[in-house]
Amino acid sequence: MTATATTSPAVLAVDLGGSAMKGAVVDGAGRELATRTVPTPDQDVVAGLTRLLGDLSGLAADAGATPVGAGVVTPGSVDEERGVVRYASNLRWRDLPLRDLLGEATDLPVAVGHDVRAAGVAEQLFGAGRGSDSFVLVPLGTGVAAAVVVDGRVVTGFTGAAGEFGHIPLVPDGEPCPCGQRGCLEAYASAGALTRRYAAREGRVLTAEQVVAALGSDPTADRLWDEAVTVLAQGLDVLTILLDPQVIVLGGGLSRAGARLLEPLTAKMDDGLAWRDRPPVVLTELGDRAGRLGAAVLAFRAAGRSDLDQP
Ligand SMILES: [Zn+2]
Questions:
Q1: What span, in angstroms and rounded, lies between the C-alpha atoms of 164 and 88?
Q2: pLDDT bucket at 91, cuts 50 / 70 / 90
Q3: CATH code of the domain containing 40
Q4: 231 CA to middle of ligand 1, Å?
């Protein structure tokens, strides 16, 4: 135990994305004592991360807490056991021993995890997956992935690449995907796809939020949204048939469309299923805090403490 009588233990948690590093100081009850978000630097991301962890350490002290560990989650292919980021295209990382680098820099036990899988851990402990041993979290952001929780465990797969739900090819000879395949789910049903497909048709760049806001008054927005929802429903039906989840949790920017997403999506999922019922489809409760709360859980584990106390 490193905590003294006057301070409580906390961890430093960072959700590292291609554009922002979202940091928080999290206590043993899963509460965020302080947060700090900074842009992801173009060069030397590890140095930027080290600085952010230093800042968070100061914020922890201000909040009367003692850091006992740190957790960082990243996109890409992550070997959580060895703390190595195998490949993260947005960060231009390959086989980076991030846990060891940050451990030396911070002198704390460090955990490195995958952003979406960690978000699944957080939703299971604190969010919409609470009390469920089998559920799927699908963040619909610039891209699309899934945290697949089966019998209480987040599935990582043989090479650590499980859950690449966005790259299931669903549309034969469909749109090219940046991954190199064609017809991937995320080439239709992601914020990035909506922006790209709208610009290709109308010659104007709209954010996914603007496309959603234009529904009902802009036929191109209506058509692209309908196609996105159709492909997403197909993909979620595949997951349902394969995994039999208790609940499907949707997160990411597109989930903020709320009923404009859920109503047509669940209707199309029902149309696609004949012999079994659809599981409930709900929205994330943790929103974009899920990744860093998941990083906090991993950090407490790295510090040799059990999971955070469930509130
Ligand atoms: Zn793809």
A1: 13
A2: confident
A3: 3.30.420.40
A4: 13
